[in-house]
Automatic annotation (TrEMBL):
<dbReference type="InterPro" id="IPR051010">
    <property type="entry name" value="BCAA_transport"/>
</dbReference>
<dbReference type="InterPro" id="IPR028081">
    <property type="entry name" value="Leu-bd"/>
</dbReference>
<dbReference type="GO" id="GO:0006865">
    <property type="term" value="P:amino acid transport"/>
</dbReference>
<keyword id="KW-0029">Amino-acid transport</keyword>
<dbReference type="InterPro" id="IPR028082">
    <property type="entry name" value="Peripla_BP_I"/>
</dbReference>
<comment type="similarity">
    <text>Belongs to the leucine-binding protein family.</text>
</comment>
<feature type="signal peptide">
    <location>
        <begin position="1"/>
        <end position="26"/>
    </location>
</feature>
<keyword id="KW-0732">Signal</keyword>
<feature type="domain" description="Leucine-binding protein">
    <location>
        <begin position="35"/>
        <end position="368"/>
    </location>
</feature>
<dbReference type="Pfam" id="PF13458">
    <property type="entry name" value="Peripla_BP_6"/>
</dbReference>
<keyword id="KW-0813">Transport</keyword>
<protein>
    <submittedName>
        <fullName>ABC transporter substrate-binding protein</fullName>
    </submittedName>
</protein>
<dbReference type="InterPro" id="IPR000709">
    <property type="entry name" value="Leu_Ile_Val-bd"/>
</dbReference>
Amino acid sequence: MNKRHPFNRWLIVGAFAACLAAPAGAQDAVKLISVGELSGGGATVGTNFKNGADLAIAEINAKGGILGKKIEVTHYDSQSNPGVARGLIQRAIDEKPYAILGPGFSGSVKVTAQLTSDAGIAQVMGGEAAELTRLGMKTLFRTSFGQQSSMPKIAAYLVDEVKVKSVSMVWVNNDFGKGGRDTLSKELQARGIKIAADISTEAGQVDFAADVAKVKAAGADAVFVYLNEEESARILKEIRKADIKVPLIGETTLLGQKVIELAGEAANGVRGHVGLTTDAPVPAIQEFRKTFVTRYNYVPDHNGIKGYLSIYMIKAASEKMGKLDAKGLPDALKNLTILASKEPGILMDVTIDENGDLDRDSFLGEVVHGKQQITKILPKLKK
């Protein structure tokens, strides 16, 4: 009998990137390994990240690669399981790549970060939990805001623009959700905002009737929803069914393309902070969206942008060094400012700090008639 081992469920980059990459076994290729959620509950996250990375690789290889060397990438499927992700990261390290991409789930990043740190290999990942870049790892780099950057903006928005005095919080009980809940709770309490209900849900949860009943009973001025994509869509439908009229506030995911597609009319009116979005009024992002849709025939969410940016971050740091040095790459990424005027693939000016956190423009948005609309651009925190 042919038994399927989880580590055998890996995918090699699509034909278009393979054709552009250097020949197999070439010593002068830029070898990347991506570990992401290509199946399981995080498939939307991982597939978008993978496709964004592949698109960037195709673009860069078509222009001669990084410092004249073509990029090769191998994609491994973590199956949205932290244990599988850890095993695959170890496998990736054994293959001595130039850098490792992913995972997207914070819990999977948390259990793999020590491995890449010990190996001295840059890990450019999609996790947003605040604690990740506080773990003391010197090789971990974000592709989006951590919660310590995004949640203060959400709190300020709730106080200054929504004018709330109380908030109900609904969050997914994993590293991502708990990190967001803890960070936002602290920010709200510092501003004198009452947390009327603090509701934990489970990843993959289908029925939200009981949770929504708690939200309605709390009677808060607004509801903050911080779940994964599929669960976000389900709870939005349940909230509309319960005829809850108060503002529904989220952070990036709740206003994302996948949630809008799944929730339909229930997504209309959702508001919040958006760190990355293909609806941003930025010409470079609009061009990225157009190219992505042409290649993959769907509109990407913020995870697609994360994957795309991960490659251009590695490219910019390598060019800063002037050589391909895997051991030197983490230091080259730290305190690096990448200007879109010099590297258009980065889409927006960004600064990577000593801890691997990012500073760049972000947005306030609202879902109107089934489309995300950006209502305000928020500038970088540090000029």
